[in-house]
Amino acid sequence: MQHTSNDSGRRTMNRPLLCIIGVVALCPILLAPLCGGGGEPYATLDFTGTSMPDAGGTGTLTATPNGGTEIQVSLHDIPEGDHAWHVHEGSCMNQGGIAIDLSSLVGDLHAGADGTVETTVTIDEAIGTDGFYFNIHEFSTNDGVGPGITCADVVPVME
Question: Are 60 and 43 in contact (CB under 8 A)?
Fold first, then answer.
């Protein structure tokens, strides 16, 4: 470390080194809003019925500090039982292939006798906000998934 003497005879650290230390210390604070991980959702999900018009609900996506995603989902009017769920490429109107098989990562969703699903799961994968949607299927993974019953585009939160 380079030191210099000032007029009073005290030794001080080199100013450029102090600037570098300051910038490095501030990086996590300054970058958290841009990269997520700050605990605030970066995207929302508005589920609407597809093959079952009354099925629907809401959800949020929140970045985790390790680059993954916390997924919170609240659904209603879902048939009792287990349901496969996936993140797909595209949109609910222009559907594409599976991007992330959530059932294989965290298990199928389970709807109670009252037709509701309340779950929060964390996955290691990041989910983008441009060109992805969630699809909840009629059946479990083991029963052949069936058609989608409710769908939600990933919509970025606008600040």
Answer: yes
Strand order through the sheet with 148-156: 95-100, 85-90, 132-137, 148-156, 43-49, 56-63, 69-76, 117-123
The C-alpha atoms of residue 87 and residue 20 are separated, in whole angstroms, by 41
Q: What CATH topology corresponds to 43-156?
A: Immunoglobulin-like (2.60.40)
Global confidence as pTM: 0.75
Taking the alpha carbons of 112, 50, 94, 142 in that order, is the dihedral positive or negative? Answer: positive
**Which residues does the chain have with pLDDT short of 70?**
1-38, 159
Instruction: Cite the residue boundaries of each domain of the chain with CATH code 2.60.40.200.
Output: 43-156
As given in the structure block, the two tokens for residue 127 are 């989910």
Q: State the residue for tokens 């996506």.
A: 61
